[in-house]
């Protein structure tokens, strides 16, 4: 992960099957995560241990975003897994 200044803190929200990867004691509806400045959505997913195949969509501050989007202090990032159904 890049380091281009002070660390940044984002709020992470996990949905459906991804809730199980929340750190122990963390609320999957929203918990803080500190990362080096310059980190991307993909860096955050890697830090959380979410394999790329396990997340379909990501939203940053309620707007769909790309995996390479850079994060900023105070962002709210939501990870949504692929949905199966019949």
Question: Can you walk me through this structure?
Answer:
The chain is mainly beta. The chain has a single domain, classed as Roll (Ubiquitin-like (UB roll)), CATH 3.10.20. 9% of the residues lie in helices and 27% in strands. The protein contains 1 helix and 5 strands; from the N terminus they run E-E-H-E-E-E. The protein has one helix at residues 41-48, and strands at 8-14, 31-35, 57-60, 63-64, 76-80. A 5-stranded mixed sheet has the order 2-1-5-3-4, covered by helices on one side. The longest helix is centred in the middle third of the chain and has 8 residues, at 41-48. The relative contact order is 0.30.
**CATH arch. level architecture:** Roll
SSE class? mainly beta
The geometry reads as: globular
Main sheet summary: 5 strands, mixed
Low-confidence stretches: none
Strand segment tally = 5
User: Rounded to an integer, what's the Rg over CA atoms?
Assistant: 12 Å
- Tell me the fraction of residues in β-strands, as a range: 25-35%
Instruction: Report the span from N to C terminus.
Output: 39 Å
**Might you state the CATH topology name?**
Ubiquitin-like (UB roll)
For the structure shown, list the relevant keywords.
mainly beta; globular; Ubiquitin-like (UB roll); 5-stranded mixed beta sheet; 86 residues; 9% helix
Structure summary:
By secondary structure, the chain is mainly beta. The protein is built from 1 helix and 5 strands.
Topology:
Layout: E1 8-14, E2 31-35, H1 41-48, E3 57-60, E4 63-64, E5 76-80
Parallel strand pairs: 1-5
Antiparallel strand pairs: 1-2, 3-4, 3-5
């Amino acid at each position: 992960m890049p380091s281009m200044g002070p660390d940044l803190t984002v709020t992470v929200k996990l949905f459906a099957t991804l809730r199980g990867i929340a750190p122990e004691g963390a609320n999957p509806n929203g918990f803080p995560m500190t990362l080096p400045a310059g980190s991307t959505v993909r860096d955050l997913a890697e830090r959380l241990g979410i394999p790329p195949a396990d997340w379909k969509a990501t939203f940053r501050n309620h707007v769909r975003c790309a995996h390479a989007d850079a994060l900023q202090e105070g962002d709210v990032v939501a990870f949504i897994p692929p949905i199966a159904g019949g």
